Amino acid sequence: MKIAVDAMGGDFGPRVTVAGALRAAQDFGIDVFLVGVERIIKNELEKLHYDRAKCTIVDAPEAISMGEGIFSLRRKAKSSIRVGAQLVKDKLADGFVSTGNTAAVVYISRKVIGALQGVERPALALLVPTLRGMSLLIDVGASVDCRPGHLEQFAVMGRVFMESVLGLENPRIGLMSIGEEESKGNDLTREAYERLENSSLHFIGNVEGKDIYSGKADVIVCDGFTGNVVLKVSEGVVEALFHWARREVTRNLLAKVGFFLMKRNLKRLYKKVDYAEYGGAQLLGINGVCIIGHGRSNPQAVRSAVRMARDFVVHRVQERIQAEMAKLGGATHGAKA
Question: What pTM did the predictor assign?
Answer without folding.
Answer: 0.86
